[in-house]
Amino acid sequence: MKQLTKIMLLAIALVSFAGVAGAQSKKVMEEREKVLAPFPQAEQGMVRHVIFLDKKADESLFKVEIVPGKVMNVDCNQHTLMGKIDEKDLQGWGYTYYEFTSNGQTRSTMMACNKPNEDRFVSAQTTLVRYNSKLPIVVFAPQGYEIKYKIWKAGKELRAPIK
């Protein structure tokens, strides 16, 4: 009987928690939609990628590297996707968003390969932007391309020796 009571209490707690988590999740989604409202929608043939960052105690110690690319069937050489990220100003708001453009061509090393081709993520030139959890990072890219990102953290300050 005690075990049944414990199971019932646990079930009630889980249902309650799920309800609270669902309400919080809905609230977060609504807040994110409000923040995204000024940003343009994706044009024909483009996809809008949005990166929301977690709040940090000292955001000046962090940077975000935007890594555009595409999964491609390539050989064993090192491949780089041709393309660029342009910084755009959201007129009237002072916000920044980014647009990645590429024609899909790659450059690579020219080593002889003795392995079959494989599907790999091939990235283009990356862009480093400041970390700001108050605004999302919005990146437009052609359909079929992905936007990945890395968070970089500064180490402790070092002193250069005098010689």
What does this protein structure show overall?
It is a single chain. It is built from 1 helix and 10 strands. A hairpin with a 4-residue loop joins strand 4 (84-90) and strand 5. The radius of gyration is 23 Å and the shape is globular. With 163 residues, the protein is of the alpha+beta class. It has 2 domains: 1-37; 40-153, Immunoglobulin-like (Sandwich).
CATH class label of the largest domain: Mainly Beta
**CATH architecture type of the largest domain:** Sandwich
Helix coverage percent: 10-25%
Q: Counting H and I runs of at least 4 residues, what is the number of helices? A: 1
Low-confidence stretches: 13-21
Main sheet: strands, sense, barrel: 4 strands, mixed
Q: Which descriptors apply to this entry?
A:
alpha+beta; Immunoglobulin-like; 4-stranded antiparallel β-sheet; 1 helix; globular
Could you give the topology of this structure?
Elements: H1 2-36, E1 46-51, E2 62-74, E3 79-81, E4 84-90, E5 95-101, E6 106-108, E7 118-123, E8 127-130, E9 137-142, E10 146-153
Parallel strand pairs: 5-9
Antiparallel strand pairs: 1-9, 2-7, 2-8, 2-10, 3-6, 4-5
